[in-house]
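subagent[fold] <- orchestrator: predict structure for attached chain, return tokens only, no commentary.
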Amino acid sequence: MKYAAILMWLVGLCPALWAEPLQFVDEWSAGGQTVYGQTRAALSTAVPTGLRVRLPQTGATVRYGTLTFLDKGGAKMSVALALVDAPQGPPALYVDGDADRVLTSVERAALARASQRPPSFGKPTDPVWLARLYRPSQRLLALRTGSIGGVVACAVRGYWHGEVPSGGRNRPLAVVDADGDLWLKQNVDYAYLDVNGDEKLQSEERFYGLDRITTGNRAIRIATGWGSGASWSPAPEGEAPVRFRLGKVERTPRAITATVSSDSRQMYKVNSLDEPTTLPVGSYSIDSLMAKVEAPDGSLRSYTFQGLGTKAFEVVPNQPLTVDLLGRISIGITCAGPATPGGTLALDVTATTATHLRMTACTTGELGTAQQQGLMPPQIEFLSPSGEVIDQGPMEFG
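subagent[fold] -> orchestrator:
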């Protein structure tokens, strides 16, 4: 308790001057939750480029794969593996754990006993192999073939542990490298924090926003980057006014409703472009947007967008901010089926904004007659290589 009291005093005195290192724990689970990351390798009969193979292969079918990890500098490091199916006996798995691009028989993975298997990793009857990774970091790997075949799934054991003082006690923190590449990344990897103080980790205590995790009246942040250098520190506190706008839309919207979410899972509603919205500091994504705008012909056009869950803006203490809810809109068109001469061409059209919103609905109608609104299909033109219009016309929704 003395340590916790001193640490809490330091947090209040100089929150930006220190960071508390996290300790690596070589376990599959913590506090009742699985805390290992997972990656995978697609299998192929082609030998990976630059790999020298020195394995017993007489009469066997050999398929190769590559696991990708990140080293301390963020560079990709490939670790090759080979699944050998012999005419007789069970398959064998070999993993180039030292990443020297030479795969030998001494690198054969061992079959895991029931007590060595990661929890919730495949079916209990599926064989699981264990192998050591030595580069770019020393870790234990558990591997199994995928349920659909052609893939080797890999569990990377271990997580980073710390204790965060809050409410007069230390609360356990577990940081998980979810994609198993040995780097911690915002909105990809996550952390568990025992917010309710019951000394267990629960699904509702999982945070994907490593930049800001709220506990009681304090917020912390997890340093992203090389996992072995992970640490936590107090997150900046405060708020700032944020004014929202709708890109190059010239006419004032008749109605607008938007929702934004912080990396601490707090949702805020925006109902006006005239007044700023005060938001706490942190990273934000735009979750949804609905706007009704009067067109030049007097009709009312309604647009609905849904967020893709990607960070859109950052709020810094006491720094006013203007956020464009739309930005540049990109149109994507893909064929939804085969194209045949004289047949119907089915296309999937998507509209995605620079703020990571995707249009899900567009309606038109006379002002004040919402019941008469109908869908307006887009127009399409077919151009020759020289840019001349070959054909044009409206599309049909279907």
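orchestrator: received. Logging for downstream: The longest strand covers residues 282-294. The chain is about 5% helix and 50% strand.
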